[in-house]
Every structure is written in structure tokens, then in C-alpha cells.
Amino acid sequence: xxYASQSGQAERLALxxxxxxxxxxxxxxxxxxxxxxxxxxxxxARALIVASTFGxxxxxxxxxxxxRLLQQTAGTPLAGLEVGxxxxxxxxxxxxxxFGHALERQLRALGATPLFPLIEVDKHDVQALADWSxxxxxxxxxxxxxxxxxxxxxxxxxxxxRRVLLNPGSVGGELYEIALAGPAGAIWEAGAIAEIIACxxxxxxxxxxHAPRSYSIASLPSDGELQLLxxxxxxxxxxxEGRGLASGWLTRFAPLGATIRLRLQANPAFAPAxxxxxxxxxxxxxxxxxxxxxxRARQQAGLGRNWLLFGERQQSVDSICGAELEGWLAxxxxxxxxxxxxxxxxxxxxxxxxxxxxxxCSGELRDWLQQGAIVYVCGSLQGMAAGIDAVLQEVLGQxxxxxxxxxxxxxxxxx
Length: 415
Fold this sequence. Notes:
Layout: E1 2-4, H1 9-23, E2 31-32, E3 46-52, H2 64-72, E4 82-89, H3 98-109, E5 113-114, E6 119-122, H4 126-140, E7 156-165, E8 175-181, E9 193-197, E10 212-216, E11 226-231, H5 239-242, H6 245-253, E12 259-265, E13 279-284, H7 288-300, E14 306-312, H8 322-330, E15 334-341, H9 354-360, H10 362-370, E16 374-379, H11 381-406, E17 410-414
Parallel strand pairs: 1-2, 1-3, 3-4, 4-5, 4-6, 13-14, 13-16, 14-15, 16-17
Antiparallel strand pairs: 7-8, 7-12, 8-11, 9-10, 9-12
Helix pairs in contact: 9-11
């Protein structure tokens, strides 16, 4: 039983599936693909794989080394291996379950044969998980309890208490701080995700009825409210007067006091480092949300040695959370703050992107990494995150980047 996990869902499902098989008297060896070599698959007669897709068809960060080695394998060394695949994804992305499909194709090209047709799961789809449970039952010859019940936790009612436009006049689209009050005792850690049911402008459920959108949480429970940073998306021909379904509801149409249906999702791949280790935080736009919760958690724990590189468009109107960031710099909580602007260029302000600033600071980057720094990236997958990945590979080489990923010192929450 192997898994390729980004947020932790694939790992949870793989472990639960393995326990169910063991209870059915099936011997199961559980492996993460993070530090697994394709050649090791030869020792097994059967392999069950739970594979998440990250972004547009990508392998989860920790599994990129395995995927690359698998692509470099030639011949049919896996002839005789039977493989069953559970592919996890999100239909909002064009490459739905893309990595699971790519992984199965490559395994079949190397001689493996399918135990059953690949099963796709859209987020926490109950029917797809039931199909997986039935497939496990057929493989084991015994009844298997339903897998993934914990993945379908109910949404709770939260209340919209505040909505503040942070960048009036920005060419990048309106960015709002959204504040929500929730059930008593609601807890989460820095880096967690809020999954919200989208509504139409009139407050009716969007179709399909459960059309959730995920947002990085920008606050901590100790702040007394759940805060989000939400960019109002605009799409020609879209519903909600051309605004994004969830972003339009949150930033314009939901009245103050409205009920927002939300559930909290842990995000262990983006867990905070609450220890004496340096941290480099890199992001752009609404990606500041996930980084802000980390920096607040580190401040609570009395942990300095933090470097924030953050990109926006215009100095005059895109000073997102500027007072808070400057306060952290002044009191030493931020050892370094690089604010990078992509649309300016006048009055001595350099026009550049975050990845360009990081490349220019490669010497400091090496120093921080040699001191054990963890790199956190939050924001847009295209452009910014891809650029940061390229810079890290330039600075560290492929082996160095693989080592950083294997040590879980390179963590991303990008979209």
C-alpha cells in the first residue's frame, strides 16, 4: 500500500485502507513514495496506490523524485505486478487526477497490469470512496468497512462579521480581508485550509449543491476570529454578475451576518515550524494569508529568524497588511522583509517578480539554507511558484532540491 500525498488526505486513506486489509488477514506493507525507489516495486506481487494530484496534474512535492525516477526507467521490469490506483483530485482543475493517471500509465508501460480500473475521487466523493472499499473487498476476498468516512466531516455554520477592501484602486483586482465567527471551541493550526460552500448571489446553493472552494486561513484561533484574504475573481459570462462563485459571494453578495458554511481542513504538508529553526516565507497576492498565520504562530512562540519575500503590483495601493509587516520588521520578528512590486518602475521603485528577487539574493538564500532554514511558498502556482522552484534548482542542483524535499524543508500551499 503506497501513497503520494500533498495535504495528508492520500496518506490518511492509505493507512485506513491498510488497516482494513490487515483486519481481513491480508499482509500489507505501507510505504510513502517520498523516499521509495521504483525498483523496490519488484518485490511485490500487488501494489495499491493512493495518489493525490497537486495543481494542474503535478506530483505531490515529496513524490517528485519518485515520479522522475519512474520516467527514467526503461523496459518492462514490473511485468507480473498488479496495480490498483485510487486517484485523488479536484474537478476545478483541468488536469483532474492528472498525476494518478500519469502514474498508472507509466506503471503499465513498465509491464504492470491493473487489478481494477482506476478510481477517481473528486475531493471527498462518497461514492468513489465506496467503489474503492468494494475494490479492496474483492482483492481481499473479505468484507471491508467503508473507507474514508472521516473525509466527509460535516460543514459548520460560521457568520460573516467583517469585510474590508485592502487594495482600493489596484490593477490586480479587489482583495478583501474576510472575518468569520464560528462555533465555540473551533481550533486550527497555522497553514490550515477553510473549505467553503459557494453560493449564488441570492444566497441559494451553487450547483452542484456542494461546490466547495478552499482558502488558506490567515489567522489563529487566538485572534478570536477566522480571517481569510480573498481576491474577487472576475470571469466573462460567469454567474454572480461575472464574479467568481465563492469569491463573489464572500466579497460582495453575502450580507454581514450571513451564514457561511465552512469546514476546517488540516494541511500537514504546510505545517508550521514551531522550533528554533530559521524560516523563509515566499508568496504573492492572497498567498500572504497562509504566510501570515505562520508568522503569527511563530511570534506567539517567540521565534524570530524569519525572512518574508512577498510580491504584489503597485506600492501605492497594494500595501497588503503593511502595518503588521512593518511592525514585525521593526520589533525584530522579521529578520528581513523583501516587498517586491511587479507593476511599478517609477520613482526609484524596481519593477520585478518574487522569483527574480530570490535569484538576486541567492547568496543569502544559501546561507539561510545551510543554517537549516525551511522554505514556505504560498500563492499562485503558475508564474510565482514555478519560478521559485526553478531558482531553488539553480541554487541547489537537482540533488540538493531532492534533499530539501525529502527533509520536508520545502513546503508549498499553491493554487
